Inverse folding.
């Protein structure tokens, strides 16, 4: 939980620097690569988090792993983290970075959950509606949740637009419970 | 209440079902990061307001208290064992509030307005927020009507007015709750037609129990029902087994309900029993919310905690209806230490205090009020003229008696004047003793005190003083009842009445000495 504050600062720094140098897209690509690597390799995660491996060793290994694959900015960023001793927070930093990148590009993630599968067209239609409301570009993350019984639930940031049958049933239940209590 | 007909239910259901596609519920959410000890930390809830109510799964509610950079700290009003990490938390978009109305009278409720007396749900029209700003100077007027507690020691020398805050402070088991309960029971009179005729307005009572034992609460409610006080009383309870956040908001709930009566031109009395436990519950919550501890580990704003609560007790000016809210907070001291943190805080906030001492209690003086250091800053303004005339002498006599008490042990080695003062003082102390649950009407108090301060008790044996008073009051009730009606009607002791009283007392004293054992 406490990692957010630290992560946000590093993410902000590298994001702004990239914007200044006009390298925004290149950096995003590199960090995506990094995030993928972290997700796929448990050893990499463990390596970064380990307090017993010395700074020099970490730096050397990072050179061999990434120097050829990413641009200068991304690589320097990695080195900075090792120097500051914050390489264990890399995961959170990447999460915060992509959040801020979305903000920068005016993209908002829409979490869409529905009871049955929806076609791309259907999903786009909903996304379009929200685009109108939020005036931002919508990226849809879709998943099926049978529990909803019908309808869909759309979540943007912290606000939920709940049009599911499950919710209506819950509200009905509350209303009847209230009425029953009165008797 | 009419039964719900079967077709009515399906009709509603059909209506709901047809509205399905159109109704989309929009709410703001957060995710629980950490939960424990009655506190939950939530990620998200970006638009939440401070002190807003939020809903956890399984019908557990919470209140937002800390809005921090990366999380929101909420206190839970229910079992924290139902809440898990990762649970979704919804905003209710309303600041903590409780239902208010006359329907609350006669009920025992939680600080959130839910009944716990098993007498069915309560339906009210209005909801008022728990935290409200106290009124400013312009909306108030000075306290001028008395709130009779029915206790001779209090009404005579530490009179309480409607709209005042009077602290009841003492060690454990000194009779603090007893004083409060007697005050409630005595308000029964204000709801009678006789009181209305005399211009005495009814007082509605609210008893807030904070952190008390469930068994004590049951006894209190039983006693109030026994004396018919529950008709005009609401009991708000947050017992010792309730989570600290509920104990924290309990007094504010009492103040809110009291303000409902006050703002509608009526009078209310609210008793906070007790604020020491309230401060402890608040300390528990603040420490768990990681707020920095101050003196005695209490958070820095513990003074504000009580001051904003007690400032809500006031007397409104006539434009706003002339209603009032009187507060009787209770504080428990440890070993008589009134200079500890919380007691000194509350003493400086209230308009006076009633000190109850263990030593007095143990030597048989009950109520164990130390009249010397108890004070009411409203004083004579809250007394009817008749009582003021009698009480002036009383205070003086008792003060002189206390000074000489140490010499009492020398007995006959003292001069006549000192002996007389000791005699008078001891009779008055005996007169002020009173049993629990027998609050005395004001006119009877006046007659009794008149007898005491004018020396009619001096020849009576110490053991007989209580019997003298009892028989005197019965005597007057039987032979001269108009004395009582005159005093309570005019609220004054005219020359005529005074002379008459002297005559009656001489008459009665003659009779009494005959039946009692010669002193």
């Amino acid at each position: 939980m406490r990692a957010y504050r630290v992560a946000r600062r590093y993410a902000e720094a590298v994001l702004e620097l990239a914007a200044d140098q006009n390298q925004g897209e290149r950096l995003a690509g590199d960090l995506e690569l990094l995030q993928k690597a972290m997700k796929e390799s448990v050893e990499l995660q463990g390596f970064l988090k380990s307090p017993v491996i010395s700074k020099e060793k970490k730096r050397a290994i990072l050179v061999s792993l990434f120097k050829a694959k990413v641009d200068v900015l991304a690589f320097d960023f990695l080195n900075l983290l090792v120097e500051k001793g914050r390489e264990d927070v890399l995961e959170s930093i990447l999460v915060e970075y992509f959040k801020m990148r979305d903000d920068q590009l005016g993209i908002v993630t829409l979490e869409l959950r529905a009871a049955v599968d929806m076609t791309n067209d259907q999903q786009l239609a909903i996304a379009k509606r929200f685009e109108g409301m939020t005036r931002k570009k919508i990226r849809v993350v879709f998943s099926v949740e049978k529990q909803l019984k019908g309808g869909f639930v759309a979540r943007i940031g912290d606000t939920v637009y709940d049009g599911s049958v499950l919710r209506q049933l819950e509200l009905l239940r509350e209303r009847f419970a209230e009425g029953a209590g009165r008797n | 209440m009419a039964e719900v007909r079967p077709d009515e239910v399906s009709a509603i259901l059909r209506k709901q079902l047809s509205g399905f596609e159109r109704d989309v519920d929009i709410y703001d959410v957060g995710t629980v990061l950490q939960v424990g000890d009655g506190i939950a930390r939530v990620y998200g809830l970006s638009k939440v307001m401070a002190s807003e109510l939020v809903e956890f799964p399984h019908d557990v509610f919470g209140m937002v208290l800390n809005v921090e950079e990366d999380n929101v700290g909420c206190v839970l009003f229910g079992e924290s064992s139902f809440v898990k990490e990762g649970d979704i938390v919804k905003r209710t978009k309303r600041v903590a509030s409780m239902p208010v109305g006359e329907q609350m009278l006669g009920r025992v409720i939680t600080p959130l307005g839910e009944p716990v007396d098993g007498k069915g749900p309560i339906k009210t029209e209005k909801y008022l927020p728990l935290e409200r700003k106290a009124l400013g100077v312009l909306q108030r007027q000075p306290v001028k009507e008395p709130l009779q507690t029915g206790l001779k020691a209090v009404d005579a020398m530490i009179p309480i007015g409607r709209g005042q805050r009077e602290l009841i402070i003492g060690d454990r088991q000194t009779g603090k709750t007893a004083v409060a309960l007697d005050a409630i029971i005595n308000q029964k009179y204000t709801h009678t037609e006789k009181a209305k005729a005399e211009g005495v307005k009814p007082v509605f009572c609210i008893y807030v129990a904070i952190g008390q034992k469930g068994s004590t609460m049951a006894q209190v409610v039983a006693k109030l029902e026994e004396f018919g006080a529950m008709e005009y009383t609401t009991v708000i309870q947050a017992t010792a087994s309730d989570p600290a956040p509920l104990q924290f908001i309990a007094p504010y709930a009492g103040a809110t309900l009291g303000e409902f009566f006050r703002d509608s031109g009526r009078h209310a009395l609210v008793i906070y029993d007790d604020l020491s436990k309230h401060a402890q519950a608040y300390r528990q919550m603040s420490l768990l919310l990681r707020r920095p501890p101050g003196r005695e580990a209490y958070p820095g704003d513990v003074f504000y905690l009580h001051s904003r609560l007690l400032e809500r007790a006031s007397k409104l000016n006539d434009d706003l209806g002339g209603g009032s809210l009187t507060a009787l907070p209770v504080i428990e001291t440890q070993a008589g230490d009134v200079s500890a943190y919380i007691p000194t805080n509350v003493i400086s906030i209230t308009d006076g205090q009633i000190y109850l001492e263990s030593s007095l209690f143990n030597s048989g003086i009950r109520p164990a009020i130390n009249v010397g250091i108890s004070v009411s800053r409203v004083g004579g303004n809250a007394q009817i003229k008749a009582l003021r005339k009698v009480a002036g002498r009383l205070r003086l006599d008792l003060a002189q008696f206390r000074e000489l008490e140490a010499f009492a042990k020398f007995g006959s080695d003292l001069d006549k004047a000192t002996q007389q003062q000791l005699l008078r003082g001891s009779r008055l102390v005996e007169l002020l003793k009173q049993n629990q649950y027998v609050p005395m009407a004001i006119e009877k108090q006046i007659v009794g005190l008149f007898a005491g301060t004018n020396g009619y008790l001096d020849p009576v044996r110490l053991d007989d003083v209580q019997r003298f008073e009892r028989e005197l009051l019965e005597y007057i009730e039987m032979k001269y009842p108009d004395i009582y009606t005159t005093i309570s009607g005019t609220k004054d002791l005219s020359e005529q009445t005074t002379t008459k009283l002297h005559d009656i007392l001489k008459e009665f004293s003659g009779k009494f000495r005959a039946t009692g054992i010669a002193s």
Summary: The longest strand of chain B covers residues 25-36. The interface with chain A takes residues 1, 3-4, 13, 16, 20-21, 23-30, 33-34, 41, 43-47, 69-71, 121, 123 of chain B (CB under 8 Å). The two ends of chain B are 67 Å apart (CA to CA). DSSP finds 16 helices and 16 strands in chain B.
